[in-house]
Amino acid sequence: MPQLDKVTFFSQFFWLCFFYLGFYGVVVKQILPRFGRIFKLRENKLRGSSQGVTSLHQEKSKVGESISTVLDSGLSTSKQLVQSTLEKTTNWVDDVLKQTNVKDWKTANKTYLTSVGERSLSENLALTLAFPKVHPSLRSSVILAQLARFAQAKAKTTKAR
User: Fold this and answer.
1) Angle at 119 between CA 117 and CA 107, to 5 degrees
2) How many Å apart are CA 73 and CA 75, to the nearest integer?
3) Where are the transmembrane segments (predicted)?
């Protein structure tokens, strides 16, 4: 296993110890003394007077209200930003799609419609040549069905633009 490779094990162990000991030093020398000062300050406030308890509760409630206010405003702001970004993105995608259909796919759509029309016409001619004795009304219904399919295909491509 590459994790237990004897060549790289010592360097990995060294850097692991280095970063963990560095993090431990930062926590012990900087973060824990700050917490200690805060706890001592709060303890002195409580000992100072009986009003300390009520003032501490008032301070706690003010902090809670301010936190909820900040969170509410941040949430509403982020919600508005997400909605506006989503709306702008949707508009951009729609514009790009329309431009692509108009510019890049215009010739492809025309070619497709032409090939569908030619195929329909060739099928109808093949039916007419293969079955000349078939009643003309039956042949015309087949031709009309083919034209209806051609019109539907054309309508779909124009809607996509």
Assistant:
1) 50
2) 5
3) 12-32
